[in-house]
Design goal:
Structural class: alpha/beta
Number of helices: 7
CATH topology: Rossmann fold
Strand content: 15-25%
Distance between the termini: 25 Å
Largest sheet: 6 strands, parallel
Mean pLDDT: 89
Oligomer: single chain
Length: 146
């Protein structure tokens, strides 16, 4: 089974390092690139066509939401999981409308990010437990994310 090729995008170097370290431990994942801005994410996605992009929402320049829209224009087979400090159902709805296939709270990333990737790889949409506790209705969002 081929490895999933990942692009990690976060403007905080420490977060990128932690996420990359977590993902690099998994033999079925290959972090092929990491970057710090929405503009760079769009360029790298167009160049590399990663299988999966872990994308922060709060990026300098263009937001992760706008970057996702642009990425899916040039790399439509890439899937996006948003990684965000915002535990807001409204933000998660916006992320799913932009083409996100998952939404993981940074607070829960160490315990949920791999689960989100597996879920997405199996064709499911994933939302952090933080948002499910707030009343996220996953069934109503499945169509919005496709």
């Amino acid at each position: 089974m081929p490895k999933l090729r990942l692009l990690v995008v976060d403007d905080h170097a420490v977060v990128r390092r932690v996420v990359c370290a977590l993902l690099s431990k998994e033999p079925w994942l290959d972090v092929i690139c990491q970057t710090a801005s929405g503009e760079d994410a769009v360029k790298k996605a167009a160049e590399l066509h990663p299988d999966l992009i872990i994308l922060d929402i709060g990026l300098p320049g263009i937001s992760g939401i706008e970057a996702a829209r642009q990425i899916l224009q040039t790399s439509p087979t890439s899937k996006i999981i948003f990684l965000s400090q915002h535990d807001s159902i409204q933000m998660a709805h916006e992320a799913s409308r932009a083409g996100g296939r998952g939404y993981v709270s940074k607070i829960d990333a160490s315990t949920e990010l791999l689960t989100a990737i597996r879920s997405l790889d199996e064709g499911h949409f994933f939302v952090s437990q933080q948002l499910r506790r707030q009343g996220w209705n996953q069934e109503s969002q499945l169509g919005a994310a496709t």
